[in-house]
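Changelog excerpt

This revision adds worked examples to the README so contributors can see how folded entries look when concatenated. The first example is reproduced verbatim below.
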Amino acid sequence: MSDDAEAGADAEAAYLFTVQLYLDAEAPDVWLDPAITETTMHKAAAEPGEEGWMFFRDNLWRGEINNYEHTRRLAEEALGMEVRSIEFRELRASEAYYEDLQAEIGEHLDAFKADDAAEVVKKYLGSRVHVRE
């Protein structure tokens, strides 16, 4: 496992996406068949209250990507390759992270136009939250 993968595996929370990538060979006498592969992209979730912690609010709605082309371009920039498709799978988080996230949401309910943190989670993430030990 690479150092980057090990660092990501230690993240308290991550957004998981299924992505289909287009692979293109540099050499003209080499090709790939199939040239499209599917994998899981993990994006570390910012700590609640830190810059970027509202990623879910800005990019998801009821557990689905709210602006497909924008999110696909973000993935292409992050991966440095063509992304043919992207689908949100889940927010995977430790119990501590999820509790902190709910508390932080509770402090900013006006930004979500909601009455409580549970409503916010349902509104943006749907049922796609996986809390792990």
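The second example, added in the same revision:
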Amino acid sequence: MTSDDDVAPDTAVGEPETLGDRAALALLEYREGRTDAMTELVREATPLLWHTVRAQGVDRDTADDVVQGVWAALVRHAHTIAEPHAVLKWLLVTARRAAWEAVRRTRDDQRRRAELPDDSPTSPHVLPDPQPGPDAHLLRDEQDRAVWRALLRLPERCQELLRLVSLADRPDYRMISAAIGMPVGSIGATRGRCLAKLRTVLADLGEDPWTA
């Protein structure tokens, strides 16, 4: 007969193992009117979102506002997210896009405040267009589509890792480790192997954006 001491406590069964799992659980409980898990998710995931936003070039004060906006957006869309286990990726992608928008607004404001040269018939000045031309946009779009097509052919673990790594210019391996449950010391080597697989797939498809 097995004694009570030999039985593992019930609380150890089925506990969410990764931040992604905990995010899914928090969303499901929030939909049922229980907010404790969502409050804990905000506390736990805010540093990851803040790092993602800051990595896009957003200043500290604006980053705080952007992250708050991301959580507000999650509340608005809580009942429309079809796959709960995708909620962490949804948060990261939303944070990155909001950061880009914040950077764009800041740059637009700076351009509007810049002193423009005098424009007269005798000394006309033409401001250079800071944006890439349409050919550059087209090439970049084609390259991005090729990479994403190849990415979908990789194992799910590689897809998840490369997507998270791509969300920040300077990815924080500790945050990625918390998000996907991969040891920090394994992320670099695994990333290298996944990138090698991606290049192989791109070569098989006859496309290689790295050399375009």
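Reviewer comment on example two: The helical segments are 19-31, 36-54, 60-77, 87-113, 134-151, 156-166, 173-180, 184-204. The radius of gyration is 23 Å.
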